[in-house]
Amino acid sequence: MAKIESIVTSGLQKMDHKTDPKSDICANLSEVLAGDFLVYGPQVLVATYVRPAKTAGGIWVTERSRAEDEYQGKTGLVIALGPTAFKETKDVDFGGLIVKVGDWVVISPHDGLAMSINKQHCRLVDDVQIRAVVKRPDMLL
After folding, report:
1. Using an 8 Å Cβ cutoff, are 74 and 140 in contact?
2. What is the pTM of this model?
């Protein structure tokens, strides 16, 4: 197992974050976090992760690629949950896994309703459209 983890980890392109992306998004969306934006039903508000201009290895990312992250980004930060998000029903079983505000998640760029809140690109998706939880937002691009 350690060998597989080593191979997988070596392929990840870590980004050179000058500031914590979670803190930046939360500061930009403080009103939403304070409850000024209420999400209904099984909806999840996810702020799209936009990678910084440079990788940790020193490779520069073009401005066009970064701008495209807003619309094609697959990773985002959970900002708000509707009151019935991740509640199991007879039709939906999450296997006991729960997504929380502050988790980095994977979504399809084609799912949900795209919007901009305080110039922060976000998507409002159904809870069943959350594909995975990741430790770092730059694990996939």
Report:
1. yes
2. 0.80
